[in-house]
Structure formats: structure tokens, C-alpha cells
Amino acid sequence: MKKITFLTLFACTTFIAQAQDFGSIVAASLPDANKYATEYMRPFGESEIYNLSRGWFSTARTHKFLGFDLSVSGQFALIPSGKESFTFRNSDYSSLKLSGTTATSATLPTFMGGATNQQITATTSTTVSGVPVTATTTITAPGGIGDDLKKNLSFLPLASPLPVAQIGVGLFKRTDLKVRYFPKTSFDNIEVGVMGVALQHEFSNYLPFIKKVPFLHISGLVGYTKSTASYKPVFNSGSSVQNPKGNAIADFDISALTVQGIVSAKFAFLELYTSVGYISGKSNLSLKGDYTTTYQTIAGPQTVNVTDPVALGYKASGVTNTWGARVNIFFFKVYADYTFATYNGASIGAAFSFR
């Protein structure tokens, strides 16, 4: 279950590592720092909403009373090529400008993008002994993890992965209760918690024409999942960003609601399924605590104090359409599907099911 939030934690630690290089940006302007970080982290913040809403079903059939299944699946939100980068415009920022070029805009990588050599100049203004002082610092724009993902997940297009584990139990009147749960648990300086619940109800018996087609099943599902993770970063002694009070913490909070209409057809060992539905969710990423950022001026080193410098929020919603197939080998099931959405998704999983 620790792997359930693998990418979330990877994102967290990578973002903090980048944040240490963002010292000059933070010192220059908190609004600019948040504006840049919002575009940089957007594909992760949005794609994980889609991942969290998926993986609830691989059939429209429900269990008999107290029948149950245990399943594990891998969800992969495919990153559109347009989300691997964003357009940085000088005019959008008050204290950040492109460096080493006469261009007023440039394409820079997002967190899911690749590397870049583009330089950015951050301008900071302060007052020393009543005298206005301006300092400029040039840094390389942060790259993303896209190249690493393409290397390690070469069998897939660029994707944001998320493992999911859950249990489903038959209750009454062809209704299944599905649960995803992992109590908030600490691993070194990381704390993770996952909670999800869904209800799936089969309507096949209510429809006269379905009784004439016994291999066909129709059901509806409503599911909600919430994942939280926090990470206590450690800043390098040589970093321009420090946390003298030791209260630094990075928080992730992602939630997703899905409503699906599901149809499946069972042919001996093979089962085909499809669904049309709607997902809606939000994700928040924040860096909290008290920080000092040091930069050089003609008057010597100057320090800026900032509190809770990063607060990012994303929302995603839209219609989804899933097509999949499942192989039923007695109690063991293997399945795979593909979902069409703003972030298309691929899924593969296995389950033990006892009806």
C-alpha cells in the first residue's frame, strides 16, 4: 500500500528539490513564484484527479450477498503533449524575465516535461539603511521528470502512474460496497493516507429485455476517493532557502468523485465492459512553514523572510468513456481497459473474486 502514493511522494520530493533552486524566485515575488509553480505542477495536479477516480470496476456484474473481491490495479493517466510544457511570457510576471535572449516568451517544461537550458532572471528590491537596493539573480528554469518516466515506463506513452488496491463486498439487492483504505501512516519523514468508498448497483433485473440476453449486465456506480500525503523536507546547508524554525512541510491533498454507467457482456472466460460517466475533483499542493531566502546585493548578503510561500490548487472535471476486457479464470481475474477523457487513461489489474 505504500506504493499507492509513489508518484505523489516522488512529486513532493522533486518539487522540494526544485524549490531550493527557486530561492531567488521566492525572494523576488511570492505571487510570481506561485504563478510559475502553478503552471509547472499543473499536469501532475490535474492528472492525479483522473487517476484517483478510476479503477473502481471491471464488470457491470455485482456480487451475491457477502460475495467479495480483492483487486489491485495500475492506473496511468496519459499526459497530452501540450501539458509537457507551458508558455512563459515576460509580461505575465513582475520580477521574472527570460535571460540570454531577446525573446519575450519561451516554452518551458512542466513537472511532467523534460530538461531545459533556459535561464531566468529574478529581480529583488529591498531597502538597506534607508537606501533602495536592487539585486538580480539568474537561475536555470527547472526541468521535469518526463525523461525519467519515458525511460522507466518505456512501454507506455508519457503517463502519470498510480497503483490502486481495493475490496468489494456484496450487500443486498445486487449492490456492492467498494472500499479503498490506508490509515494515515508515517514512513520516515513521509505521512500517507488514502480513503475511498463506492457503491455499485446492478439494474439488469429491472429491464425486461435484459432477461432475454442473459450474458448482458447493466449497473451504475458512484465513487469517491481522497488521498493525502505530507513530507518534511530537509534543505541543503548551501541552499539559498533555509527553514530555521524546522517547521517546513509539503502537503498534497487530492480528491475525486466519479459517477459511471457500466455495461458488460460475459462470454465464458471472456468478459467485455464499457462505461460512460463523469468525474470531478480537486488537488492542492502547498509548502508551509517559515523560510529565509538569502541573496547578494552591492550592500552585501540580504535575507527575506517568507511564511507559507507556495499554495497551488487545481480542479478537473469532464465526461469519460472506458472500454475494457477481462479474462475470468475461475476465482482469478485479469483485466485491462482504456479511458477516453481530457487525460486519457490506461489500466491493468488483477483480482480474486468470490461470488
> What low-confidence regions span 5 or more consecutive residues with pLDDT below 50?
1-13
Approximately what portion of the residues adopt beta-strand conformation? over 45%
Q: What's the gyration radius in Å?
A: 24 Å
Number of domains: 1
Please provide the ordered H/E string of secondary-structure elements.
Answer: HHHEEEEEEHEEEHEEEEEEEEE
Task: Kindly report the spatial arrangement of strands forming the biggest sheet.
Answer: 1-7-8-9-10-12-13-16-17-18
According to DSSP, the number of beta strands is 18
| Shape by Cα distribution | elongated
**Please, what is the average pLDDT?**
84
How many helix segments? 5
| N- to C-terminal distance | 25 Å
Helix amount, in percent? 10-25%
Main beta-sheet strand count, sense and barrel state: 10 strands, antiparallel, barrel
Helix vs. strand class:
alpha+beta
Topology:
Layout: H1 6-21, H2 23-28, H3 30-52, E1 68-78, E2 85-89, E3 96-99, E4 105-109, E5 119-128, E6 131-140, H4 146-152, E7 159-170, E8 175-187, E9 190-202, H5 208-211, E10 216-231, E11 241-242, E12 249-267, E13 270-288, E14 290-297, E15 300-307, E16 310-329, E17 332-340, E18 345-354
Antiparallel strand pairs: 1-7, 1-18, 2-4, 3-5, 5-6, 7-8, 8-9, 9-10, 10-12, 11-14, 12-13, 13-16, 14-15, 16-17, 17-18
